[in-house]
């Protein structure tokens, strides 16, 4: 996915609420007019409108309520910048924006793009974000951005927590069916799935990516214990994330960054063969939201100013 249109900027001068929404949790910060300093922060639950639209809307509204509680700030004077997972599909994005019409303006960004802008301060760079899902983003020197992966766990998210968790589950059920000898990874996964076949089947009905990703921790635990297959899975995930960096096409002068729990856990494996080592970015996407909303970085998608 690439953004080939000339970069557009927008400058929101009033009170600003910046939201970082992910598949596991969300957070937000309030910035007062003319200030780049966080006035107040808040936290809420998961926020991915493609997976659970109503829950995502509820999380954002909870964050807004927390930030404005006890303040003489009217919501209709606030600008809202949403750096959220699951808003790349245009129909979802439009519907999500329409849920917050009480705000003065709503600026949508993918969570990965917001992290990209935050990591580089609005300058050219590349980032790979890997947690429950994963995506790679690059901001070119001309201000045009592009994305690689971020297709979701069915078609992509290679090297993510969901990618690892799904392989751990399949391995465990392969063992459960008597097609491979029992091992520590299968035992750990089966304990989480349930004791009986019925419990295991029920655990996999309508499972969401966050739940699948929760099984990735067993891969890390078994790798620490020296299990070869678990080690193979982690090396495979690191290879995918390294290839994601390559696909961005960053030049030698553009810094590279890592963000997200899985990326941090695999950072050494990812960087080992790379000539330009990616740096950990831990400040989250809220900073990126603020920079875009204040006009110091390009919008990800064109919109009316």
Keywords:
alpha/beta; 305 residues; 5-stranded mixed beta sheet; 10 strands
SSE layout and pairing:
Blueprint: E1 16-21, E2 26-31, E3 40-44, H1 53-68, E4 79-84, H2 90-98, E5 105-110, H3 111-120, E6 125-130, E7 134-139, E8 145-149, H4 161-176, H5 184-193, H6 197-203, H7 209-213, H8 216-224, H9 228-248, E9 256-259, H10 261-265, H11 267-271, E10 279-280, H12 286-293
User: From the alpha-carbon coordinates, what is the Rg to the nearest angstrom?
Assistant: 20 Å
Give the overall average pLDDT: 91
How would you classify the helix and strand content by structural class? Answer: alpha/beta
Helix count, per DSSP?
12
Q: Distance between termini? A: 24 Å
Instruction: Please write the string of helix (H) and strand (E) elements.
Output: EEEHEHEHEEEHHHHHHEHHEH
Beta-strand residue percentage: 15-25%
Major sheet characteristics: 5 strands, mixed
Kindly state the percentage of residues in helix: 25-40%
Describe the structure.
The chain is of the alpha/beta class. It is 40% helix and 17% strand. It has helices at residues 53-68, 90-98, 111-120, 161-176, 184-193, 197-203, 209-213, 216-224, 228-248, 261-265, 267-271, 286-293; strands at 16-21, 26-31, 40-44, 79-84, 105-110, 125-130, 134-139, 145-149, 256-259, 279-280. The strands form two sheets. The chain has a five-stranded mixed β-sheet with strand order 3-2-1-4-5, sandwiched between helices. A five-stranded mixed β-sheet has the order 8-7-6-9-10, sandwiched between helices. Strand 6 (125-130) and strand 7 (134-139) form a beta hairpin. It is globular. The model has no long low-confidence stretch (mean pLDDT 91).
